[in-house]
Design brief:
By secondary structure, the chain is an alpha/beta fold. 40% of the residues lie in helices and 22% in strands. The chain has 2 domains: 211 residues, Spore Coat Polysaccharide Biosynthesis Protein SpsA, Chain A; 60 residues, no CATH class. The protein contains 10 helices and 12 strands. The strands form 2 sheets. Strands 1, 2, 3, 4, 5, 6, 7, 9, 11 and 12 form a 10-stranded mixed sheet that branches. Strands 8-10 form a two-stranded antiparallel sheet. Helix 1 links the parallel strand 1 and strand 2. The longest helix has 16 residues.
């Protein structure tokens, strides 16, 4: 019996990137084990005509309208909730709309998942490894240890943290862990999910090869010494900045009393970013 897949995305005013992402997704080869793939896209209040353009080019995409205040984590939660209610899918795939998938990306993700079952007899989350650009092999997103990026080397490699750019989750893991946490607005939901996976006895792996391109985001403005302090402090609490309150919640949840160390470091980083950088060298 073949499986079904729900692809989950959220977007806001990035029409060109969203369309490019979807086009590459449709051009990617589906594994033979997948009989159907449905797409659920949350358009979080775009004013650039994203929904209209998507439906014109890809009328089968399930477009869900957001209120403009969902950002990444809450937008993905909504997409996942709608997909889970619409059908009993065997797999769910998180996909950022700035990702450009290779043609064999989906096959690599599912091959890695199947290898974890056959080699380790254990269901695992698979996060896709991405390059910063089409040319070269500079890592941008994927799996991470406590202190290092995990560079694809042709073998399955465990990771502690998962970047949510492209992540494959089976229905069994979804049934155990549920949706992304409601405690986060934009960032940290992916890290939280990966750590919850480990706590529940699952494993996280990164793909054996790069499966596409996803450019690295610019240096966070809240810690950029070239940005005015007043602006940095505003971004320090913003959903698209550090979002300090949610960041501390995340640290308390998984690090206990050590959250105090992270709190102090965060304040040093926003108030004295150049000094913090020297301390890190």
């Amino acid at each position: 019996m073949k499986d079904t897949l729900a692809v989950l995305l959220t977007c806001h005013n990035r029409k060109a990137k969203t369309l490019t992402c979807l086009q590459n997704l449709f051009e990617a080869s589906l594994p033979e084990s997948i009989k159907k793939a449905d797409i659920y896209l949350v358009d979080d209040g775009s004013t650039d005509g994203t929904s209209k353009a998507v439906l014109k080019e890809h009328p089968n995409v399930n477009v869900i309208q957001g209120n403009g205040n969902l950002f990444w984590n809450q937008g993905m939660r909504l997409a996942w909730s709608k997909a889970a209610k619409a059908g009993k899918y065997d797999f769910y795939l998180w996909l950022n709309d700035d990702v450009i998938l290779d043609k064999l990306a989906l096959i690599e993700l599912f091959d890695c998942y199947k290898e974890t079952l056959s080699s380790f007899n254990q269901m695992s989350i698979i996060t896709g490894a991405f390059k910063n650009s089409k040319f070269g092999n500079e890592f941008s997103y994927g799996g991470r240890t406590e202190s290092e990026n995990i560079i694809p080397n042709g073998n399955l490699q465990k990771c502690k943290y998962i970047n949510g750019n492209t992540v494959l989750v089976s229905k069994q893991i979804y049934n155990e862990l549920g949706n992304l946490s409601s405690d986060y607005t934009h960032a940290m939901g992916d890290f939280d999910y990966g750590l919850r996976s480990l706590k529940a006895g699952f494993n996280n792996y990164t793909t054996k090869t790069y499966i596409g391109v996803c450019p690295i985001n610019e240096q966070p403005k809240w810690s950029n010494p070239n940005i005015a302090l007043k602006t940095r402090l505003k971004l320090f609490k913003s959903p698209t900045g550090l979002n300090y309150k949610e960041y501390i919640f995340f640290r308390k949840k998984f690090w206990g009393v050590k959250w105090i160390i992270f709190a102090v470091k965060a304040y040093i980083k926003v108030l004295f970013p150049s000094f913090y950088k020297k301390l890190r060298v």
